[in-house]
């Protein structure tokens, strides 16, 4: 597509802005002749250009820029979904009509609206993105679109296989790794960018404090506001590197509730001190990091606004706190306006009240025409000034310019090579493997090859897949899947299957809030066989059956995590993850176990090397000597308490085992055990330093 042709309508504006800047330069005294325009002067030029665009826009076009909406279809004019779009109040029969009718500022892609298939068809999504952008820039205003989605990783990700599927935020929280957070953000950002998606409603920086939270849970990095802040900022910076606008959500913090704002109106009863020290801290850090947008939550926070209105409709929260007190001048976006938590006023008033509260972008209204006309009438009647609309339009255009949308709207097919590369998939695998947390082990793990197991649990927690993976590793037995809430007959059947098993592995899915899953596990415990629970969503399940013999948390039911769980259960991988949340009355934040019985020291690691050599996990005596010699040097530095030397030589040791692993001198298992122990020891000495 000819880029110059697309922007012909903007050429006059750019010429005017350029001449204005040139005239300004001619009036300035410049010693030594001409000099380069400063960063501040470049900003002035952009400001002139933005204002020139706004001056040429109609009121209707300005109102349209405030909306990001969803439309059904796989192509810009997909004929298969015309009735669906009309029946669901999308504002037109296809993308083209919606863009032309309402001059919208952006689109949001979903799987259920058929924009992104499962599995992903990269060519189709890129074609859709390029097509809708072409339509947008051919309109009179010539303004490109935000193309957005929710690609958090974990349970909320629209781009799946053959794209890279990550285990999610709480899994990253269990690794405690800013590097993993950044790596996941870079990969997600690059893959979205390759599909023509330029805005991601992620990361979730809510601090999850409530085990019964039905909507956040594993979407959070954890309960420690410091950890959530660090990992959130790492992802935000990674998205910026990939030219994708990030969105920290859900302001002012959705972590301590037992109500899902999709279906009700949660109340956060924290006092001001707790709000600022816990809930707001990750948002403050995100603002300092220059996050491109912040998404509001449909939550009532009485300490900030006693009106009973959700934050999305609250001027004290959006304008007084976020804009003025916290000094945020980026984009403020509502959560989806179709959610129950936002619908506390009539449908035509929801966008109006949100906008009056101080938001810039009105996300996903359930009826595009009603929402748009509600805003238009509010401006025409004087309830909302056109100047206030222009403030938000300015921020929207500034964000689009800063992210290069006016320069290039078309995404090259060559970029699709970035989707699901071997390196990307390995990164997701590494994160999943490092996240698995061994919480309890009464000498029942690892599972041995001569033991027969029953793997059972709700089908959503994938017991059949887990058993298949264990079987591939030489474990005998069977699997039996139940419903999410097991019936009496399913419980009886599982107990019968357990009769000839040596051990029972139960995969659970938010069992702490599911009475039938609790009863299911208890029935299996009564068999007298050792019961190991592998929690495949929230890590809190053990609260309702604390007497199980073993407990593993994976924070995910996705295949990448189930593969990691299988490797941990048989001992191929040494568990590394630490609880990113507290299990009330049972396990503290940071609790973890592993399979080593040696001390966490260089001396203990030397003993581990000997054990691995005896198990033939190290291929030759020369490799064993090299590892032992290196650890002996570290041991001497430990004795002299030279922490910097210990840290430096541990990092060299990690390079050494990586080399031996690549050259098949040590097995995958040996590498896992030596790497995890060296990382834990490194953390000990880094903390001391």
Automatic annotation (TrEMBL):
The residue ranges of the FIMAH domain are 603-677
Q: In which family does this protein belong, per the annotation?
A: Belongs to the glycosyl hydrolase 3 family.
One of the Pfam families matching this protein, by short name: FIMAH
Enzyme Commission numbers on file: 3.2.1.52
Superkingdom of the organism of origin: Bacteria
Q: What is this protein called?
A: beta-N-acetylhexosaminidase
| Enzymatic reactions | Hydrolysis of terminal non-reducing N-acetyl-D-hexosamine residues in N-acetyl-beta-D-hexosaminides
Q: Which organism is it from?
A: Oceanobacillus jordanicus
User: What enzyme class is recorded for this protein?
Assistant: hydrolase
Domain Glycoside hydrolase family 3 N-terminal residue range list = 58-398
A molecular function GO annotation: beta-N-acetylhexosaminidase activity
Keywords, alphabetical: Glycosidase, Hydrolase
**GO BP term, example:** carbohydrate metabolic process
The residue ranges of the Glycoside hydrolase family 3 C-terminal domain are 436-586
Task: Note the InterPro entries from the entry.
Answer: FIMAH_dom, GH, Glyco_hydro_3_AS, Glyco_hydro_3_C, Glyco_hydro_3_C_sf, Glyco_hydro_3_N, Glyco_hydro_3_N_sf, NagZ_Beta-hexosaminidase
């Amino acid at each position: 597509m000819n880029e110059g042709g697309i922007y012909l309508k903007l050429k006059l504006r750019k010429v005017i802005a350029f001449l204005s800047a040139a005239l300004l330069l001619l009036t300035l005294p410049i010693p030594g002749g001409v000099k380069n325009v400063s960063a501040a002067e470049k900003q002035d030029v952009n400001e002139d250009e933005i204002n020139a665009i706004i001056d040429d826009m109609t009121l209707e076009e300005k109102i349209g820029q405030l909306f990001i909406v969803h439309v059904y279809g796989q192509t810009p004019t997909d004929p298969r979904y015309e009735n669906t779009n009309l029946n669901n109040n999308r504002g037109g029969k296809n993308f083209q009509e919606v863009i032309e009718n309402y001059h919208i500022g952006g689109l949001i892609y979903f799987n259920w609206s058929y924009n992104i298939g499962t599995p992903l068809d990269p060519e189709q999504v890129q074609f859709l993105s390029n097509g809708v952008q072409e339509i947008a820039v051919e309109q009179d205003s010539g303004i490109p679109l935000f193309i957005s989605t929710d690609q958090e990783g974990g349970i909320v990700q629209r781009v799946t296989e053959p794209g890279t599927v990550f285990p999610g935020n709480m899994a990253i929280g269990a690794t405690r790794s800013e590097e993993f957070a950044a790596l996941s953000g870079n990969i997600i950002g690059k893959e979205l960018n390759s599909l023509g998606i330029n805005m991601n409603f992620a990361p979730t920086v809510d601090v999850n404090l409530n085990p019964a939270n039905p909507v956040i849970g594993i979407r959070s990095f954890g309960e420690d506001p410091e950890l959530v802040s660090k990992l959130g900022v790492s992802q935000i910076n990674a998205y910026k590197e990939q030219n994708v606008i990030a969105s920290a959500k859900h302001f002012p913090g959705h972590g301590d509730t037992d109500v899902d704002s999709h279906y009700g109106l949660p109340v956060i009863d924290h006092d001001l001190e707790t709000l600022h020290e816990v809930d707001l801290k990750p948002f403050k850090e995100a603002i300092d990091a220059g996050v491109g947008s912040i998404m509001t939550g449909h939550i009532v926070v009485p300490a900030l606004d006693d009106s009973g209105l959700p934050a999305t409709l609250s001027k004290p929260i959006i304008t007084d706190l976020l804009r003025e007190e916290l000094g945020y001048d980026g984009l403020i976006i509502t959560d989806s306006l179709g959610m129950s938590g936002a619908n506390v006023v009539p449908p035509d008033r929801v966008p109006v009240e949100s906008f009056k509260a101080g938001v810039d972008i009105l996300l996903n209204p359930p009826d595009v025409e009603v929402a748009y006309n509600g805003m238009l009438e509010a401006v025409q009647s004087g309830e909302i000034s056109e100047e206030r609309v222009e403030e938000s339009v300015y921020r929207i255009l500034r964000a689009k310019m800063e992210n290069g949308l006016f320069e290039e709207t078309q995404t090259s097919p060559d970029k699709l090579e970035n989707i699901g590369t071997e390196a990307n998939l390995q990164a997701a695998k590494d994160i999943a493997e490092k996240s698995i947390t061994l919480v309890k082990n009464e000498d029942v793990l690892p599972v041995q090859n001569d033991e027969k197991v029953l793997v059972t649990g709700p089908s959503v927690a994938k017991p059949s897949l887990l058993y298949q993976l264990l079987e591939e590793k030489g474990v005998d037995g069977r699997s039996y899947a139940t419903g999410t809430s097991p019936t009496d007959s399913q419980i009886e059947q599982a107990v019968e299957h357990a009769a000839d098993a040596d051990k029972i592995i139960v995969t659970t899915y938010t069992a702490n809030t599911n009475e039938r899953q609790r009863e299911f596990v208890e029935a299996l415990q009564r068999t007298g066989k050792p019961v190991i629970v592998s929690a495949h969503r929230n890590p809190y399940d053990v609260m309702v059956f604390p007497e199980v013999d073993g407990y593993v948390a994976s924070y995910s039911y996705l295949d990448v995590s189930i593969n990691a769980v299988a490797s941990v259960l048989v001992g191929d991988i040494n568990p590394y993850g630490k609880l990113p949340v507290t299990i009330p009355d049972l396990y503290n934040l940071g609790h973890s176990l592993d399979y080593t019985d040696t001390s966490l020291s260089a001396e203990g690691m030397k003993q581990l090397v000997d054990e691995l050599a005896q198990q033939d996990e190290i291929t030759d005596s020369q490799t064993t000597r090299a590892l032992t010699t290196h650890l002996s040097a570290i041991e001497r530095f430990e004795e002299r308490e030279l922490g910097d030397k210990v840290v430096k030589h541990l990092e060299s040791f990690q390079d050494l085992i990586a080399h031996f692993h690549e050259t098949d001198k040590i097995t995958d298992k040996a590498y896992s055990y030596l790497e995890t122990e060296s990382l834990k020891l490194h953390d000990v000495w880094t903390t001391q330093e």
